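Weekly modeling sync, notes
Attendees: S.R. (lead), two postdocs, one rotation student

Agenda item 3: backlog of single-chain predictions. S.R. asked that every request posted to the team notebook include the full sequence so nobody has to chase files. The rotation student volunteered to paste the first one in as an example of the format we agreed on. Action items at the bottom.

Example entry:
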Amino acid sequence: MAQPADHEKGPDKTLMNPGPRSDESPPSRECGVADLDGEYQRLLVRAINRLLSTELAEFTFAQILDGLPTGEVAYDSLAIPYGDHPIGTVHDELCPGMVDKLILAYRASSPNSSDFQTRLVELVAVAVHQIAALLFELDSSLHKDDGVTDWVPPKSDEYYQQYPRGIADMVGYWAESRIFGGVVLFYRRSPTGGGPEVDPNAIYLHPNRQKITYRIFQLLPDQRSAFVDFLLADDPAPASPFSILPDENNRIRVDPEEPIRETGIYRDPWERAELGRDQGDGRYITVWDRLEYPTTEDYIASRGRAQRRKYGIISEASDSENEGRE
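Predicted structure, as returned to the notebook:
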């Protein structure tokens, strides 16, 4: 994916405005990049162009146009392909008004402020997601007739139905994970609602790779700075910090099993459906694993949340059974 010849000429200004859901009427008008004034527009366009020009972004988007990830990338995901999937051997929309709200918040913040940086990161993450979804919807796969995509998994995965753009949104989240190191998340509650220990401008990633925690982690100050500096630095651009992956020093973790309405950490309200009663809980591991839990305190607290969820399900089932007898 070549970088535009004119560095200040950004991606299509409709990229930030995904189409309406099929069951909704088109909005009268949504904000876009063109609605930003001078310096705000210049910084955003340059940040998106700079990210798209990295080899990692080019390789990620090329796989979407190809129609399949390479085998190495496919097997680097947390949920690797089913054992008999041929890929290992044959192939080495936002809610109405959400974009408006985000762009208005970006425009209202002072350049170089922490809030401005957070909103810029979010706009870039949304752009990457939407570009990936649009590329998928071009339906340009080179593998339509070679049998690879005819393979059917042994069980149905219909999680995509919770997303406005369906499978295209799954591709968008995949692209985020491959480029940034995880799906980019933020703290969505009121800045004063989370207590003094919560940073309202913190940036979180939800990774999906082998040998990496499956839990959401908060970027360390130096990781956040590297992310923001890459987007905002004057030319020549600094070295790309992506993908950003966690280690034991990333001690602020969030259980993805917890409902987003309780954690307040997400980007899109539909991105993680609440666990069903019969779904497995990844927190029930037999031993303390430092990869997942940097400290014993974190492990104990996470297990406690899992236990409360389990007992809550048992209690609800018991109450329903008693009501049925009455």
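Discussion: group reviewed the output briefly. Confidence is low (pLDDT under 50) at residues 1-29, 80-96.
Action items: rotation student to repeat for the remaining queue; S.R. to check formatting next week.
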